[in-house]
Design goal:
α11 crosses α12. A seven-stranded antiparallel beta sheet has the order 23-26-29-28-27-25-24. The chain has a six-stranded mixed beta sheet with strand order 8-9-10-11-12-13. Strands 5-3-4-6-7 form a five-stranded mixed beta sheet. The chain is α+β, with helices and mostly antiparallel strands and 569 residues long. A hairpin with a 4-residue loop joins β14 and β15. Keywords: Ligase. InterPro entries: AMP-bd_C_sf, AMP-dep_synth/lig_dom, ANL_N_sf, ApeI-like, ATP-dep_AMP-bd_enzyme, HotDog_dom_sf. This is AMP-binding protein.
Length: 569
């Protein structure tokens, strides 16, 4: 299929029956764009808020052909749209409708501007203007590299939205330029994404999704995609290996930013390869070690970012960290990426983020071994243990003084970590969140704890769910399990919550679980007695898992899953 620049897509055209998206032909697409462009004539500024991929493409091109300035808002939240529409911009999305060819779609000016937003490292929105010609050049450079991996008719699926440069280019614009059909709906769950894939298709995704593949079975050859794309943040090596094993193809990562678009790529077949510039991109290094990029799809032809790099012998580059992440602590220069990397080398740590909030602070995701040590030592002593390990390679200024232990680091839609989200974990209202590893749990005979005191909550209501049951439970204050948890401040222990989930699943779902031999659990808030809570139980026979969630009002107290043997069909 011949590539056609977006500015000339309708002037050059494709066969009327050429597929565009979900059974929509090029003739229908052209009519929908023309009809909506005629309706939008006179619109000075438009906000593209269509969530559906097809209507997002229609809305974008209709606004451009109507002569409107196009803004891609960072999200469609009411507050965001209110701020962006204050100067008269019109949201375009839900009002788009099937059209007819009521106007001629002349070639567009490649210098037509489009406005995007990026949060940067602090979370503050930053307006970025790029031209239609830049987006065209990016799509053509992308095709020069990825076209050999994805067949000319490969269907493009996505788990990312098109409200940012990466999603817009790879989910919509690259397929439109190259003539590949794309799926209209964005897949929010792996179950729907994997069910839609077939051999030779393309999956546009991110680290935020690829680090959440636990419990998914490997795809058979008939459904393995030809190309899996990831961008937004570096993909951890364990996640890259797991994704390749489950999806049947190595992940291809895209490097870039809102300001530059895609500028480099690497295929994660083994280890940590260097980033290779896309065709037409020249990568270099400034005297202070930052990445300098020259490309036709970069504003002004050149951009110097905050990424510290070293040039590789193969013509690529390796990212060493961020220039804006060197902090002064107690008069000493401390590299935050270096402290993070040293923490990750510990067998007790799966991931880490370090920042300065008057003091050096660390947010750590414990490994399976670390989770067991954390449960045994407690947060304070576990943090001291990690400080002792770091002290072998860091001066005192580089040793975090405040710690948070979480099940996963907060990230944005693409897995990019923002300073504001990490810092929020240290606010007074923020509660630590811990996920214990899968471990063997000895069977508990509650009758041996006490025979004269209650060992389970009172059931006040039972409601069926499509895949399980929901119960309202009152937890009495004289529970036998409260002994030792804790004097003067009673807390319902996690082992009791797991046991109750098993007991009620056996009673109301007929599962017959003898005991929770393997489980995962996440504690968000403490559960206290003399409280009415809701327990939701959901059974997934195909996955051999029972999921549970304890809630108090709208707040989740704890959640997790328990292995259930012998239930697969």
């Amino acid at each position: 299929m011949t590539a056609i620049p977006l500015s000339r897509l309708f002037a050059v055209g494709r066969p009327d029956d050429a597929p565009v998206a979900d059974g929509v032909t090029f003739a229908r697409f052209r009519a929908d764009v023309a009809g909506n462009a005629a309706r939008l004539k006179g619109c000075r500024r438009g906000l593209l808020v269509a969530a559906d991929g097809y209507w997002g493409a229609v809305g974008l091109l209709a606004l451009l052909h109507a002569g409107a300035e196009v803004t891609i808002p960072p999200n469609a939240q009411p507050g965001t749209l209110a701020a962006l529409t204050a100067d008269g911009a019109v949201p375009v999305g839900g009002d788009l409708r099937p059209g007819w060819e009521s106007m001629t779609l002349s070639p567009l000016d490649p210098e037509t501007p489009l406005t995007f937003f990026t949060s940067g490292s602090t979370g503050e929105p930053k307006r970025v203007v790029r031209t239609l010609g830049m987006l065209e050049a990016e799509a053509l450079a992308t095709e020069a590299v990825l076209g050999r991996l994805a067949g000319p008719t490969a269907r493009v699926h996505a788990t990312v939205p098109h409200q940012h440069v990466y999603g817009l280019n790879f989910r919509l614009l690259w397929p439109l330029v190259t003539g590949r059909p794309f799926a209209s709906a964005m897949h929010e769950l792996w179950e729907t994404a994997l069910a839609a894939l077939d051999a030779g298709s393309v999956l546009v995704t991110s680290p935020a999704h690829l680090t959440r593949l636990a419990g998914i079975a490997p795809l058979p050859p008939s459904r393995r995609p030809a190309l899996v794309l990831s961008a937004g943040a570096p993909l951890p090596e364990p996640a890259a290996r797991e994704a390749a094993a489950l999806l049947g193809t190595p992940v291809t990562e895209i490097f870039g930013s809102t300001e530059t678009g895609a500028i480099a790529h690497r295929r994660r077949e083994a280890g940590d390869p260097s980033w290779r510039p896309l065709p037409g991109v020249v990568a270099g290094r400034t005297p202070d070690g930052r990445l300098r990029v020259g490309a036709t799809h970069v504003e002004g032809g050149e951009h110097v970012g905050s990424d510290l790099v070293e040039m590789a012998e193969d013509g690529g580059f390796r990212v060493l960290g961020r220039a804006d992440r060197i902090a002064k602590v107690e008069g000493k220069r401390v590299s935050l990426p270096e402290v993070e990397a040293q923490l990750r080398r510990s067998p007790l740590v799966a991931d880490a983020a370090v920042l300065t909030l008057e003091q050096l602070c660390a947010v750590v995701v414990p490994s399976a071994e670390g989770g067991a040590r954390l449960a045994d030592l407690g947060a304070f002593r576990f943090g001291r243990l990690l400080r002792r390990e770091l002290s072998a390679v860091q001066e005192p200024a580089g040793l975090p003084r405040r710690w948070r232990f979480v099940s996963r680091l907060p990230d944005g839609a693409l897995g990019k970590r923002r300073h504001a989200d990490i810092a929020a974990l240290f606010e007074e209202s923020a509660l630590p969140e811990i996920t214990l590893p899968e471990i063997a749990l000895p069977e508990i005979a509650l009758s041996e704890i006490a025979t004269h005191r209650p060992t389970a909550p009172d059931v006040r209501a039972v409601r069926p769910l499509a895949d399980g049951v929901e119960l309202d439970l009152f937890i009495p204050g004289d529970l036998a399990q409260l002994d030792g948890h804790f004097p003067g401040m009673p807390i319902v222990p996690g082992v009791a919550q797991i046991d109750w989930a098993v007991m009620f699943a056996n009673t109301h779902l007929g599962l017959g679980i003898e005991s929770a031999q393997s489980f995962q659990v996440k504690f968000r808030r403490v559960t206290v007695p003399d409280t009415l809570v809701t327990l939701a139980l959901r059974h997934a026979p195909a996955r051999r898992r029972l999921s549970f969630e304890y809630r108090c009002g709208d707040a989740t107290l704890s959640s997790g899953s328990i292995g259930v043997e012998g239930t697969a069909p």
